[in-house]
């Protein structure tokens, strides 16, 4: 990539940002546009007009005044009547006579959609932001401001948009003690000790950021839940947060611990078919709605990783989910039942379990139950095929869960843009109803005509000043919201918008930053798990390589379970001659994935145990290709760091420096991944390295002896702490 020197930029009249920033403002900075850009928005007047004074309308008014005043560098005021050309008028037909008299086509936009249109009212040119609800109008206001932030002309604007997915939720893995499981951006933002007496400004800023990308719900606590959250004292705390979030269109949801009737209810059983248990949950649900009238419902993790569930009593998932659904139905609440399950018995193939358990239950769940399925059949890996459950349950509502926090992707310090990962999954074809039966169409409900739809993201938000631990991790929060609104949106368009809103409209910077983002996920796959390898991280902490680990609890917690490398080859045979996991996919996919020759190389070792000598498309053998990919990943990180260094003139010092520092960490870690993985697999294959590939810096024993105690997001040591190796180890 070519970069213009700073003097050339000055000659073009492009300014360099000098203002220090810490990232707190996210993509809602509203810094004044450069004068050349401001000139195209002179038609926007200095007034924001609405007659409504609902809490949400007040939020919308304040956002428009704040955004327009900042971006256009002029004083914008709020009025209840049009006073001149260029006014921005917002509202619904019910609360605005101006909107009602325009007879706008709002019918198909639903309760959360919006229309933004240039119009003439009593001879005055105005911009109208309209919807069927105040929340829809708020979303429209953010879209209008985004148009200006990204320098889209608005003189003749005409935009109509409605969310394709009904429930667009963050799942917080926050604990009540303020720790965050798999969180890499500090402690929890929810200060339970201060609630309900005090709800901080950060809670408002959190709600505002979510609303700006259309997120309309939040699950406040970890799926490995504490029953304490359901007690009266804590429900009052939750109610205060619900009051804070409500003007921004955000409902609160809670995790329901299946054993709560025993732990806080004094019952001797949690059997979902026991009348006393069902009555307890009904009464508890009624109590919640007394505190929070618009409570969204429950998220449940049951019979997975040791969590209690209906199978403890000889019942099925539908029995458990329907018990909660029965209690919630009178209030309009919903149950999100996680399909991330694996039994206490070690299976032949871990990735088959969710399908095996839930496919037979299709059609047995109540209408207000939705299955929450991880994007892949395993566990948020750098690359997995899509979960075969997508498209397999036409009679059951199904939503997708993704991980915004990067549990297996280098935590917050590795620059990995996840928009491309999610797009890859969403555009995958399930062939459930023939060609073009994409995962996106399952998620948005259009494939099987489902009204209850969901996209959930495991939050990466913490108490760090910049919210996400790194600046570029903010892009993943932003991208999640955009894709939850429209699962067919393009990751490249989202990245381009985020860069302009978060940094600058400088074309040199924007092009380089977007290019860096779009290649980053594939880079991480290369240095961590190339060619379909999976789950090769050190156990427990999931930080750094651990392909040699074979002594942790059950077999399917060990990386060796997944790569199955031996002297003959590498990979997990999921073809009909192996575990036959391919059988869970529709016939066209099943046929393609059963054959090494027709399996995409990026999924090869996921589905097949392949000889080291297998020819690859590059002309190299599998062994040579594997080693080359590890090296390619390292080289790509080095290029990322070098290209970011060239962007220093266009970024404020604080945000430039933290990104540069983290890229140095990523380069160090990519080297560790490359060398440790090559050292280990060399010891298995007994093959020489390809020509031009460097030998690892240290012996295999050196890498095996590394440990990373107290890795972020887990607290306890990942492994027994050992003395440092004799050589200088990379610091964790």
Q: What labels would you give this structure?
A:
single chain, globular, 732 residues, 3 domains, TIM Barrel, Chitobiase, domain 2, Alpha-d-glucuronidase, C-terminal Domain, disordered C terminus
Task: Explain what you see.
By secondary structure, this protein is an alpha/beta fold. It folds into 3 domains: 28-161, 2-Layer Sandwich (Chitobiase, domain 2), CATH 3.30.379; 167-493, Glycosidases (TIM Barrel, Alpha-Beta Barrel), CATH 3.20.20; 526-694, Alpha-d-glucuronidase, C-terminal Domain, CATH 3.90.1330. It has helices at residues 6-11, 35-38, 55-72, 97-102, 134-149, 201-212, 232-245, 260-263, 275-291, 317-328, 353-358, 419-426, 439-443, 474-485, 491-502, 507-528, 559-563, 587-593, 604-607, 622-645, 653-685, 700-705, and strands at 47-49, 77-79, 87-91, 114-121, 124-131, 158-161, 167-171, 217-219, 251-255, 297-300, 334-338, 369-374, 398-403, 454-458, 569-570, 610-611. An 8-stranded parallel β-barrel has the order 7-8-9-10-11-12-13-14. It has a 6-stranded mixed β-sheet with strand order 2-1-3-5-4-6. The protein has a two-stranded antiparallel sheet with strand order 15-16. The relative contact order is 0.09. Residues 1-18 and 726-732 have low confidence and may be disordered.
């Amino acid at each position: 990539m070519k970069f213009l020197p700073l003097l050339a930029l000055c000659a073009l009249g492009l300014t360099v940002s000098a203002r220090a920033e810490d990232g707190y403002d996210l993509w809602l900075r509203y810094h004044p546009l450069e004068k050349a850009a401001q000139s195209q928005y002179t038609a926007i007047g200095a007034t924001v007009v609405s007659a409504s004074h609902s809490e949400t309308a007040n939020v919308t008014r304040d956002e428009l005044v704040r955004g327009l005043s900042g971006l256009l560098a002029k004083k914008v005021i709020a009025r209840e009547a049009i006073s001149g050309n260029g006014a921005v008028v917002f509202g619904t037909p019910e609360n605005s006579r101006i909107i009602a008299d325009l007879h706008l086509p709002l019918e198909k936009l639903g309760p959360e959609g919006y229309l933004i249109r240039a119009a003439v009212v009593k001879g005055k040119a105005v911009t109208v932001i309209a919807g069927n609800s105040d929340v829809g109008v708020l979303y429209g206001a953010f879209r209008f401001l985004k148009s200006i932030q990204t320098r889209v002309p608005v003189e003749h604007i005409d935009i109509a948009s409605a969310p394709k997915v009904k429930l667009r939720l963050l799942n917080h893995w926050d604990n009540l003690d303020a720790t965050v499981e798999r969180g890499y951006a500090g402690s929890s933002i929810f200060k339970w000790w201060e609630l309900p007496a005090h709800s901080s400004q950060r809670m408002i800023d959190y709600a505002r950021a979510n609303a700006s990308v259309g997120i309309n719900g939040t699950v406040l606590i970890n799926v490995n839940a504490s029953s304490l959250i359901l007690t009266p004292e804590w429900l009052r705390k939750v109610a205060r947060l619900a009051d804070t979030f409500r003007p921004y269109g955000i409902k609160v949801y809670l995790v329901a611990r299946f054993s709560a009737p025993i732990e806080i209810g004094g019952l001797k059983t949690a059997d979902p078919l026991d009348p006393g248990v069902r009555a307890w949950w009904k009464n508890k649900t009624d109590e919640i709605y007394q505190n929070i009238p618009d409570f969204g419902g429950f998220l449940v993790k049951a019979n997975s990783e040791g969590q209690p569930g209906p199978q403890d009593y000889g019942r099925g998932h539908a029995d458990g989910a329907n018990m909660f659904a029965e209690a919630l139905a009178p209030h309009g609440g919903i149950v999100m039942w996680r399909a991330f399950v694996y039994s206490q018995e070690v299976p032949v193939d871990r990735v088959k379990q969710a399908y095996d358990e839930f496919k037979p239950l299709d059609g047995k769940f109540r209408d207000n139950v939705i299955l929450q399925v991880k994007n892949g059949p395993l566990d948020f890996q750098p690359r997995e095929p899509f979960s075969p459950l997508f498209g397999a349950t036409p009679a059951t509502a199904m939503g997708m869960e993704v991980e915004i926090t990067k549990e297996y992707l280098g935590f917050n310090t590795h620059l990995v843009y996840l928009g491309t990962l999610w797009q890859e999954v969403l555009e995958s074809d399930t062939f459930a109803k023939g060609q073009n039966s994409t995962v996106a169409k399952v998620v948005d409900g259009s494939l099987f005509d489902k009204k209850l739809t969901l996209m959930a993201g495991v939050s990466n938000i913490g108490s760090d000043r910049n919210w996400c631990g790194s600046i570029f991790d903010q892009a993943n929060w932003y991208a999640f919201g955009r894709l939850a609104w429209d699962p067919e949106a393009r990751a490249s368009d989202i990245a381009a918008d985020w860069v302009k809103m978060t940094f600058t409209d400088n074309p040199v910077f924007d092009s380089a930053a977007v290019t860096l983002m779009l290649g980053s996920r594939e880079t991480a796959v290369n240095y961590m798990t190339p060619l379909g390898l999976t789950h090769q991280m050190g156990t427990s902490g999931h930080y750094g390589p651990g392909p040699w680990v074979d002594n942790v609890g059950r077999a399917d917690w060990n990386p060796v379970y997944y790569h199955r490398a031996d002297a003959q080859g590498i990979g997990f045979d999921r073809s009909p001659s192996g575990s036959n996991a391919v059988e869970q996919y529709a016939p066209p996919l099943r046929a393609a994935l059963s054959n090494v020759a027709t399996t995409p190389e990026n999924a090869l070792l996921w589905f097949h145990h392949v000889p080291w000598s297998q020819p690859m498309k590059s002309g190299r053998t599998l062994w040579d290709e594997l080693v080359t990919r590890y090296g390619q990943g390292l080289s790509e990180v080095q290029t990322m760091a070098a290209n970011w260094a060239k962007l220093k003139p266009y970024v404020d010092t604080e945000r430039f420096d933290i990104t540069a520092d983290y890229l140095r960490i990523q380069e160090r870690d990519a080297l560790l991944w490359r060398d440790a993985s090559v050292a280990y697999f060399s010891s298995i294959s007994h093959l020489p390295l390809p020509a031009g590939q460097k030998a690892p810096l240290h012996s295999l024993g050196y890498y095996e002896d590394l440990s990373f105690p107290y890795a972020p997001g887990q607290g306890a040591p990942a492994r027994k702490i050992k003395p440092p190796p004799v050589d200088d180890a990379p610091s964790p």
